Amino acid sequence: MPRPRTLLVAVAALTVLAAGCTTDRPTGAAGQRSGAGASPQPPAAGTGDQSKFFVQADYDAQLAMRSQTPEGPADRPWEQAIAPEPVDTAEHRKDGPYRLCFSNAAVNNPWRQVGWKTMQAEVALHEEISGLTALDAEGKDDKQISDIAELQAKGCDVLIISPNTTATLTPAVTAACAEVPVIVFDRGVETDCPVTFIKPIGGYAFGADAAEFLVAKVPAGGKILALRISPGVDVLETRWSAAKVAFDASELEVVGVEFTDGDAAKAKSVVSDYIQRHGRIDGVWMDSGATSVAVAEAFEDAGLPVPPMTGEDQQDFLRKWKDDGLTAMAPTYPTYQWRTPIIAALKILKGEEVPKVWNLPQPKITAENLDTYLQPSMPPLHYALCGCEDMPGFPEGWGGTKG
Amino acid sequence: MTPDALPARRSRRFAAVAGPTRVVFLALAGVILIGWALVAADGGQFLTLENVVGVQQRSAALGIVAVGQTLAILAGSLDLSVAYLISLTSLVAAETMAGQDSGIVAAIAAVAGVSVLVGLVNGLVITKLRVHAFIATLGVGLIIKGIVDHLYDGPAGRVPETFQHLGYDRIGPVPVSALLWAAVALTAWFLLSRTRYGYRVYAVGGDVEVARLSGVRTDRVVIVTHVLCSLCAGIAGLLLAARLGAGAPTVGTDGGYDLESIAAVVLGGTALAGGRGGVAGTVGGVLLLAVLDSVFNQLEVNSFFKDVVRGVVIVVAVAVYARRTGLLRGRRA
Amino acid sequence: MRRTLPILAVLAVLLAAIAIANPFFLEPAGFLGFVRRAAPLVILAAGQYFVIVSGEFDLSVGSLVTVEVVVAARLIDGNEGATWPVLLLLVVLGLLVGLANGLVTTLLRVPSFIATLGMMLVLSGAVFLWTGGAPRGALSEGFRMFGRQTGWAVLILAVTALVVVLLTRADFGRTLVATGDNERAAALSGVRVNRVRILAFVLSGASAVVAGILLGGFAGVSAQVGQGLEFQAITAVVLGGVVLGGGRGSVVAAMAGALTLEALFTLLNLYGISGALEFTVQGVIIIAAVAAGAVRLPFAHPRRSKGDAHAAS
Question: Do A41 and C291 touch (CB under 8 A)?
């Protein structure tokens, strides 16, 4: 067999494959998008282009909400709402007991684990709820679409949905709205048919809080490394896009924006590489806290002091922060939002008004209030803002120990 | 291959195949029965219209991929690139349609083109460059993943309402997606059992050297098989685009279609080494996994427990088949 | 030895390219940092080598690494005194998983691809079933030391490398290759092929234990720690010129393959190849490397397929 020829054929085929993939896409859309995720720039080229997920109006609204006073009981932030626009729910009123259904995107990370336990505990608080039927989509869009269809047939009084992705779940949610009152929380969908959409203030506020902290703490000209979990997830894209706005307006130099897949080992390696390459890093911005302890350790292992950095409300980071006296802050995406859908469902079934968009307050942890959130008896991956401390079964139900 | 060699090979093939296929359908019936009892004991109803539709909806995409995977495995190969190809084709479909009915035909053609190309590359790398199928398709999968991740950072494109009927409509208790799956499976069954190509697939999968010596152009068979396997993945990509209303860069990997399709194929009694098995068993294997899923869903079983059961079921099933084939062989010898 | 030359040459080129882009790499601290980072994959590749050269696959090592780390964190729970007993338990656990893989593959005659795929599902499901979905507890400093301190990690890698090289030089190594090359011929010449294969799986399990200890030590407990490592390990072994299907290849080349893969990641990172395209480059290189090996081999060894001319020698 004449090998060079066949080799050539295969190489040509590979080339055609690569070329074929790009030309199959409509040119208009290609030009528009290529900026977002595909910028083939060296990592030192700053913050890159703005995310295609960035919406100026939402950004402005979220940043404004940070200083607004929420309505509702101050000691129960999961019942509070910022700038609510109430909708009438009299058409859904019925007598109990109530059967609730829940289509959950996944329980595959600690944040969702804490939230899911909190939601179940909330259900147990209400005698008028006869049961919660929950299906776990295991992170698969297609399964969640089937789950939503299946749940509609179970005679639920309210269907709660935590969508796996925004765009792709929209048709299924729209279909469900016609059958049963729907509550959406965490991620949104591209329709306003749900009775209420529950979320903390949002990703822009999260990202801006963290970036503003670094702008205030790191001297001008300082080198910033931004660590993100993965591209294309709307709730994470908004965090970065708001941080980008803040960094672009500042004197800081963003030397790299890297994805870590939420993997501690990868995050630690990335930070070590940047320390090696740039000699020093003066601040680390993170879009979530899962890997923040590993990031701090990367500096320790290099024999350097940990620069100002941001994290999230996970206990391992709060403990590290306290023990080592880090210069840090932690924006939050509170897990107490898992309580609100149950409360909202009961309000709807009793015919009480609920906000069309239920904006929950989104506290941030700073050096001043660190001690109130640090809970030594809780496991390292527990999220401090679960709002579950007063619930039956705490702390054992969440993996903690008494005392 | 001499004409009279074929029937002999064929009858032996059927002797070996009938066993596992029967086992998997018996197991399917058993799981349905047990599931029905368990769900009833839990105070629910198992065989409702919604569940029956749900099982089919949930298994259609995996089923179509698994049919293609069956061909690849029967020919002694395997395809780890299907999950990435599904993501790619869902995006190609949704982007080409761009919400317009007029784009549907072009989208289908584009998906077919991309799929054929990927299948050709897989087949050529395996046969001409003599790279083990595991590495070849893993490598091609990585290449596709890189391109998709580079171009897209989230769902893109839009599928028009007309095309979404493929994902949502049903005729009585049978969703259109299940009909599509049935059509794909029947086509594959026809190819395998009624055409020359089918004999050759079994011959190549059974023993490549013997097949080559008896005049089969083995390389060509492997290449065609990979093109067909990729086409199946492309069809699954189209179906998922219709379900999701858009293309999604992670829909294939999130669904785990690579390893799950292989699992479904061997669960259906096809030998991983090739040459033995068939599409009917695969259909049974996919349905078995889907019914298991549905039972777990009804009972709201924790997804981690599900994984444990799935792992055990797959290994036990293959162990049972291995034992039966062993006994069969022992008796003959 | 001739078989290890190509991969060593490729490795040398990659290392030189890294050194040009990043002179710090030439300093002891920089180079040892690289070795430490590569250590888990190198060790997994060594374990995977035994399985692959005997003609099998082990897809369960990635989830076994996760299991080791998550189990360690929950049982140690930050308590220094628990470190050594738990380490012992982890070793036993890893060996048992390897033993189970081996028994299912040989005695139940389930193809190892399926047996270890099933094991992967069972392990990852079972461990999170046990911990309630997310890791709990914390690792002790004593446990973290092995992966976090460069000296320890490099030492562990060196010892592992020595052990596996000795193993392949021993009778076991030769019978293993013979088994992978031609099972029947090996059996006829008196090799207990099942026992050899089971031992290969046990070694692969042991390598996952060591890799888990290093990875958990490096960055702490996480649910993703082992994700995708099985494919990386197999890729590394194949990159080292070890033939899938068994019978040919050297363990030194397999470990060099892992170093090469890690060097490739480092290099792509240094030259700022966009994160996503990294996969594309990786895919092309794997195919090209294996194709180059397959195309060249016939000139060195004039035979078309393994097993016919070459019995247990």
Answer: no
